[in-house]
């Protein structure tokens, strides 16, 4: 299974899980043209899982649905999908388990300022994967997890610096702290809830432009867990081995 990153920031999020015969999309926050560059035959796309209603994750849902891609998302997202036929949508709730082609998926609530879902995904070609974004912390334990995609948006040091230098207003910093996963929350979560035995790699998602440092974050996560660690950015491709 290949993971291809189309975008991973507040400018737009999109990820492709591309198997031998089937492709699953995560998020609809990048234009469909970006998906077309990687998928010749859209009939191989079994669906698109969307985390929440913010534009950087959901802006292009109508275009995806028009192209015949089935959308899986919570009620908050589906209610905001004007012009999308109800047959193109599956409304999810926390704890729902379902199949999308050969992918088995479980939706698990995240902690953001709007309803938000993380996804736990199984497929014969990759084993297990967790996708957690836009969530200041996370409460689910992950045993036997092989692939972790997790938001690492900010660090306290850089956020404080941005406020001191007046690049970020204090109320924006407050929202960031309360709604997005910081470096130390991510490290704490992985330490406490993720069993590392089977974990092959960690992919850091949705790094902030102002409040993150990809090099430092990679060093810190690598030091903490001794696993290959990647920064999700447009163009990144990783082979997700079983
Ligand atoms: Zn976001
Ligand atoms: Zn968001």
Question: Cα distance, first to last residue?
Answer: 8 Å
Order of helices and strands, N to C? EEEHEHHEHEEEEEEHHHEHEE
CATH class: Alpha Beta
Poorly predicted regions: none
Class computed from helices, strands and strand pairing: alpha/beta
Give me the number of helical elements: 8
**Portion in helices:** 25-40%
Largest sheet: 7 strands, mixed
CATH level-3 fold name: Metallo-beta-lactamase, Chain A
Question: How is the topology of this model organized?
Answer:
Layout: E1 2-9, E2 12-18, E3 23-26, H1 32-36, E4 45-49, H2 55-58, H3 61-66, E5 71-74, H4 75-79, E6 89-92, E7 97-100, E8 103-109, E9 117-123, E10 127-132, E11 147-151, H5 156-164, H6 170-179, H7 183-193, E12 201-205, H8 214-225, E13 229-231, E14 237-239
Parallel strand pairs: 3-4, 4-5, 5-6, 10-11, 11-12, 12-13
Antiparallel strand pairs: 1-2, 1-14, 2-3, 7-8, 8-9, 9-10
